[in-house]
Write a structure and sequence with these properties.
alpha/beta, single chain, 13 strands, four-stranded mixed beta sheet
């Protein structure tokens, strides 16, 4: 069986810390990075600036074997950054705007597969240019859409996000985001049922942090839930949700059943919180999962 192509659309950026340390990230980029390590060869569509940070991103992607055909270079906008500030040991984030990933151009899209899986989040559509390009991808292909909700104040509006659900097959979000999208219901299952009744969604994956995750299906099958099987030594939780999403997508193209997919996504996310940062260049980190899953 030949894997279907996965298109990953959205932001790539650097998290910039007060001590001058920079960490490469952005939820879509993290997802694409993991998928590449798992042999899925995604097409990552984003934009970087014509600057040093942009060159670093290109070099990192090339070194990891990723396809650079979808990575645009914007001459007037800088590579994305998030300024991380620490106060009383608590981080706060300033997502710099505007930047290159706000201006992903539809006219610069590479050739696209006819029937891909399309992953995107909600940050990169804060600007009409990138939002329009996402729409163009949907019009140029017949995708199965995976929407990963990541609400970053003040860069989202409910009226921009709800219409996206009309052509989404698989929705992933956490319980806080569920409450934001469906504020007029109090219980989790009532909120889930409202989303199913008002959209064409096939599956909703709800993450619950240390309590695990659950997949709800529109066809009425019982929900599938999972909790972490072992005590995790948490280094940091940065990118855990992105790791989880990458394996959900991998399960789709490898035709794993939902229970297997959820179990493996939880395992991989649990491993990522035991390392520093959202990704790693250590191929050995992925090897044990590849050995078990293939």
């Amino acid at each position: 069986m030949t894997d279907r192509q996965i298109i990953v659309f959205g932001e790539v950026l650097f998290d910039c810390f007060p001590d001058g340390h920079r960490i490469l990230g952005g939820a879509p980029f993290n997802v694409a990075w993991h998928l590449q390590a798992f042999g899925a060869a995604p097409l990552f569509i984003s934009s970087v600036g014509e600057d040093l940070l942009g060159e670093q991103i290109k070099n990192a992607m090339a070194g990891w074997g990723m396809d650079l055909n979808g990575l645009q270079t914007h001459t007037d906008q800088p590579t994305g950054q998030v300024e991380v500030k620490i106060s009383d040991n608590e981080p706060s984030y300033d997502i710099v705007s505007p930047c290159a990933y706000d201006y992903i151009q539809s006219g610069q899209l590479p050739g696209l597969p006819d029937h891909p899986f399309l992953y995107h989040g909600t940050l990169a559509i804060r600007n009409a240019v990138s939002a329009g390009t996402l729409l163009a991808i949907k019009h140029q292909t017949t995708p199965d859409v995976f929407l990963d909700v990541n609400l970053r104040t003040p860069w989202w509006r409910i009226n921009d996000i709800l219409p996206l659900l009309s052509n989404t097959s698989w929705l992933k979000l956490n319980h806080h985001e569920l409450a934001e999208l469906v504020p007029d219901r109090r219980e989790e299952e009532r909120r889930i049922n409202k989303l199913f009744s008002s959209t064409q969604l096939k599956h909703i994956t709800l993450t619950r942090g240390e309590k695990g995750a659950v997949i709800y299906s529109a066809n009425g099958f019982p929900s599938i839930s999972i909790s972490p099987e072992k005590t995790i030594s948490v280094i940091d939780t940065v990118g855990a949700g992105d790791a989880f999403s990458s394996v959900l997508l991998l399960g789709k193209i490898r035709d794993w059943n939902l229970e297997t997919t959820l179990k493996r996504a939880q395992e991989f996310a649990g491993a990522v919180v035991e390392i520093r940062g959202a990704t790693t260049t250590d191929q050995a980190f992925y090897r044990s999962f590849l050995k078990t899953w293939n």
